[in-house]
Write a structure and sequence with these properties.
By secondary structure, this protein is of the alpha+beta class. The chain has three helices and five strands. The protein is elongated. Keywords: DNA recombination, DNA-binding, Transcription, Transcription regulation, Translation regulation.
């Protein structure tokens, strides 16, 4: 599901909302999550999951085209951990 599809589904499920209101709500929530992570904070949505930052130390990488070694600097990357309710909801037998 894309952000546009989420906005459309939200507007369809709640006819009292205009599509622009649904779009504003989704963008506001995503912006708040992004800003909290950028500030180094953890975001927890109970029953859904939590967003946090994982530290990646500096390392030596390799340019796949030339094979030459390149220094990859340290960085923080976003990480999502699904909550118990979400894990249980999507747990179904693999075929």
């Amino acid at each position: 599901m894309t952000k546009s599809e989420l906005i459309a589904q939200l507007a369809t499920r709640h006819p009292q909302l205009l599509a622009t209101d649904a779009e504003f709500a989704v963008k506001t929530i995503l912006d708040a999550i992004s800003k909290s992570l950028a500030a180094g904070d953890r975001v927890e949505i109970r029953g859904f999951g939590s967003f946090s930052l994982n530290y990646r130390p500096p390392r030596l990488g390799r340019n796949p085209k030339t094979g030459e070694k390149v220094a990859v600097p340290e960085k923080y990357v976003p990480h999502f951990k699904a909550g118990k309710e979400l894990r249980e909801r999507v747990d179904f037998p693999a075929s």
